[in-house]
Design goal:
Radius of gyration: 17 Å
Strand content: 15-25%
Largest sheet: 5 strands, mixed
Order of helices and strands: EEHEHEHEEEEEHEH
Distance between the termini: 11 Å
Structural class: alpha/beta
Helix content: 10-25%
Shape: globular
């Protein structure tokens, strides 16, 4: 059985985000070269610097130095220098990163160098009594999904609702509710998921508990 890694934080100290795309000019309305319809979902900023500042400020306003930020992938654009640039502007010392499809310039050396606490494709975590799974991509069925363990994912920028007790924690999806580019607290995300029905189409309970 897959073990859930116990993280040494209180529930109130853990926050989730994804798809920050720091430095991504084409996702910024003021700088994009995309035409319609691709530019219709751009973030409404006059330039990429303003977008970057809003993302950094939104994270720093919620996540303290000793807290934990779990980022579900697609950290930054603009080359290797923006990996460091974005990380150094965040106050939080503890960042776990799931590997996103645009994170090809990030590797284990960034863990060894202290930028990230972990860099993995999928994470199985426990904070106090709460167990949860994190991945860049939405997944229909995941480990212990039939036992009310939620999945937190990104990648889709609020354009897709995954079945079951899962939530798109991407910064664009959270913006739809808060009108701020900010993370979501673990407890808030957990409560949202627990109010959703489990997806049991695999009939997994028939074979194992």
């Amino acid at each position: 059985m897959i073990a859930f890694k116990k993280l040494p934080f209180d529930v109130s100290q853990v926050f989730l985000t994804s798809d920050t795309h720091f430095g991504h000019k084409n996702i910024c309305a003021g700088d994009t070269t995309w035409g319609s319809p691709h530019n219709e979902a751009c973030r409404n900023f006059t330039n990429t610097d303003a977008m970057n500042a809003a993302i950094v400020n939104g994270i720093n306003a919620m996540v303290g130095e000793k807290d934990l930020l779990i980022h579900c992938g697609d950290w930054s654009f603009g080359g290797k220098e923006n990996i460091w640039n974005f990380r150094q502007r965040l106050n939080c010392k503890n960042v776990i990163l799931m590997q996103g499809n645009h994170d090809h310039n990030i590797g284990k050396e960034h863990v060894r160098g202290g930028l990230f606490t972990e860099f993995v494709q999928i994470g199985f975590y426990q904070v106090e009594s709460l167990k949860f799974v994190c991945c860049h991509y939405p997944i229909a069925i995941w480990h212990q999904s039939h036992h009310n363990v939620p999945l937190f994912y990104g990648h889709v920028h609020g354009s897709f609702t995954n079945p079951g007790k899962s939530l798109d924690v991407g910064i664009d999806n959270i913006f739809k509710t808060t009108q701020v580019y900010e993370p979501i607290a673990l407890k808030t995300a957990w409560n949202i998921c627990q109010n959703k029905p489990a997806f049991l189409e695999s009939h997994h309970d028939e074979f194992t508990n």
